[in-house]
Amino acid sequence: MFRKTIVMMLVVLGSACEHGSHVSLGEAGQKTSESLLKVAKDLSASGDLVTASRLYRQALTLDPDNDLATLEYAGLLRKMNQLDEALEVVKICGAKKPDCPKVKVETGSIYLAKHQPREARYFLETVLEKEPENLIILNAMGVSYDLEGRHKQAQLYYEKALRLESSYASAQANKALSLALQGEHAKAISLLEKRVERLDASLKDRENLALVYGLTGQYEKAANLYGEDLSRQDIQRNIAYLQTIRSNIVYDQPEEPETMTLESFLQGGQTFERVLGAPVGKESLSSQEAGARNQFLKKGL
After folding, report:
1. Domain boundary residue among 131, 159, 180?
2. Tens of pLDDT along 152-175?
3. Selection from 245, 297, 261, 257 nearest residue 146 by Cα
4. Cα separation, 145 vs 60, whole angstroms
5. Cis before residue 257, ω within 30 degrees of 0?
6. Contact (CB, 8 A) for 76 and 68
7. 153 and 241 in one domain?
8. How far apart are CA 97 and CA 261, in angstroms?
9. Nearest-5° Cα angle at 265, 263 to 270
10. Domain of 176, in residue numbers
């Protein structure tokens, strides 16, 4: 069906040129680009990021002045962890619209994914000054401070977001994980257990709690949580991974042995994913993905 759709688009474009239709090449290209973008967005939403990115490239070749699509393409590349390319693409948007809040947020998000929290804050803070109640940016600011091990500062941003919207799931999870990184495991577990007990608890909620159980050596509890979603083989692999996490934690300050930065955690070989924008595609554990994964930041930009 997908191939048929693309072929039909190309046929429409070709016939317009061949028969001298009153529709110009530019108009035909723009219409084809719009159709490609629609399919690309659907594929991105379903998790097929590779095909979606290919269609974005084709669409932008036909209509290179589509600034919104260019920005969306940068976000897609970020989700695919193609961060250098994402940064180059978003710079195109920044050159055209340097004061656009969405461009600044995307640029900050890319720097955050590159583990460059200061650079991320440079862009995020300028938007936050004008939009002090922007939940996504408050959440992202929190992650930037967690990357530096400044957990109390990070938690201030999560808490501000939660005062604005108490049900904001991403800020709830990030606050709990920040507490865990700070060594406040009991508080973190309490918050995450409340989320898992909800009727609408997600796989990501269970993954977050399993991760903190793993940090505290409660592997049986972690295995029970994984049991709802994974095969026995994947459970064993993830428990082994949690054991590796716990044994390889890099602590930052000897006087505070229970505190670590998110950056040091990542350098220890962990696979935290802090993503702004969604869906990400590989956001959950499956038989194709071993290892503990967590996503930071609100889904949906």
Report:
1. 131
2. 999 999 999 999 999 999 999 999
3. 261
4. 35
5. no
6. no
7. yes
8. 34
9. 115
10. 133-301
